[in-house]
Design brief:
11% strand, 3-stranded antiparallel beta sheet, mainly alpha, 3 strands
């Protein structure tokens, strides 16, 4: 755990202070405690990712990719899965890195959450025409071409609109009467 001391004037307020104490002459000392990001690590002093980053940087000092990864790791305390995969591919080319550290890096990569999207479902039409309904409507309209309710059903059927249960029973009743 690291401890930083910052002196600021008493007139300023800092939100979210963990601890502060007054000092004479109008200033106060802030004690800010920082901890590691992963609190559940077994040995927090062992940092495989940082060791591999430094080893790759020693082997390839002009690599801007490795430099940016190191900067981000120091600033944010971690790397994304894709960044770790890129680091792993760089580290495989360096012969001085022990295989155990590479295996640990692979385990860290596998433990990370994979952000993948599921495939889109196949496009299915919202409404499928029922051939039997169409035949019922046509059979009724052959015998009675001016029947207003059946003409309404034909219009609804042609526009691919869904029939309600009462409309379906009414159509079946017309089919029994006129068919």
């Amino acid at each position: 755990m690291q401890q930083y001391r910052i002196k600021i004037p008493l007139t300023r307020r800092a939100p979210g202070l963990m601890y502060c104490r007054k000092e004479d002459k109008g200033t106060m000392i802030l004690l800010i405690f920082t901890t590691y990001f992963n609190m559940n690590r077994l040995k927090p002093e062992v940092d495989i990712v940082l060791d591999i980053l430094k080893a790759v940087l020693l082997a390839q000092p002009l690599s801007s990719f490795t430099q940016s990864l190191l900067h981000q790791y120091q600033e944010r305390g971690g790397l994304s899965k894709k960044q770790l995969q890129g680091l792993h591919s760089k580290a495989l080319k360096v012969n001085t890195i022990p295989q155990g550290k590479l295996a640990t890096l692979e385990a860290i990569i596998l433990r990370k959450h994979a952000n993948h999207r599921s495939e889109l479902p196949a496009a299915v039409p919202l409404y499928t025409k029922d051939v039997a309904r169409g035949k019922m409507i046509e059979a009724i309209l052959i015998k009675h071409p001016q029947h207003k309710r059946v003409l309404f059903f034909k219009l609804k059927f042609d526009n691919n609109e869904v029939f309600s249960a009462t409309e379906l029973t009414e159509l079946q009743k017309f089919n029994k009467l006129f068919g």
